[in-house]
């Protein structure tokens, strides 16, 4: 019983009733245009004195409504109203203008259905309540019975008079039932008539995929740039603190490396955050590449106390810009991984060379004796909260360029090996 009352008189039913009343209001101009045609044809200057002529005008106006529904803003406006008043899910509706013949046909069908159903319910809402209220109060207001105007003869019987309030209440419930039923049907049919076409769904999926790709790219950039900088600065500051009294020269080099690292990272962070700010242009800091900053990256890494040997058997200047940029980030993350997990106790070997039109990047370091194998295939300990994303980012970068990345332990040596094609799918 409660569910029935909620269906007939609940908040959702009331909002859908308003939606139908709006449809009736929109139908009135078309009815007036129809009356201009029906009146002369029927020979009656005032068509609103006859219910049949009113219905004829209404029927003639609906095709006109279907034609005007081709206005580009019809579907967006109707979708917005349906979403808020009928409770239809936002992703089940299309908010752009109807472009194809199928979309225009469905929009015309919906607009005609909305105005036609709304016109009927609006007319019932105007006519039924006064009559129903009159029936409810009829036994208690003798003046309504004694004037003899407009009352059917049956209502002068005592039994009919006693049932009049029941009939009046039943008419109001029936009106609510008709409105709730029509509102529920329109809400059910709205996604089919106002919903996105297959082309709209493909476009939305492509937009979501593009947005996700941008988010993933920004996440990788932040992880590799800021993560490396924090790891490097932490070790550089720690190394400077340990040898401040015994080796001031090394401490000065570490502090200079900290200054250089933070300055570069702030520029890169500004460039990434500029993409996230709505309406702002991306920052102007250039994306680092192997050609531009490999030596600086190695110098700053060594300033933190990590022993790094490097072998570069190719000319970074000859690499395509995209490959050079992604390779820089891969080398940066490989060294960051060693900084976090190997520290200064081991020597990290970096090799960059060419083979079969592929750029090869190899980072190797012995595993620490005091730490277990790391999470997600990373070397060293597992105590760093939130770790394990670096290798995934390296694999994503390699895959997006059509290459491949491998990481794992071979005979006590942690080894990261990446192959990036110079020509291929990027």
Automatic annotation (TrEMBL):
Keyword terms: ATP-binding, Kinase, Membrane, Nucleotide-binding, Phosphoprotein, Transferase, Transmembrane, Transmembrane helix, Two-component regulatory system
Record has Nucleotide-binding as a keyword: yes
Signal transduction histidine kinase subgroup 3 dimerisation and phosphoacceptor domain boundaries: 215-279
Compositionally biased residues, Basic and acidic residues: 370-384
Region annotation Disordered: where it falls in the sequence: 365-391
Taxonomy, superkingdom: Bacteria
Organism of this sequence: Streptomyces pactum
Transmembrane segments: 20-43, 55-73, 109-138, 158-187
One matching Pfam family: HisKA_3
Domain (Histidine kinase/HSP90-like ATPase) ranges: 325-421
A GO term from the CC aspect: membrane
InterPro entries: HATPase_C_sf, HATPase_dom, Sensor_HK_TwoCompSys, Sig_transdc_His_kin_sub3_dim/P
Annotated protein name in UniProt: histidine kinase
Enzyme Commission number(s) from the entry: 2.7.13.3
One MF term in the entry's GO annotations: protein dimerization activity
Catalyzed chemical reaction(s): ATP + protein L-histidine = ADP + protein N-phospho-L-histidine
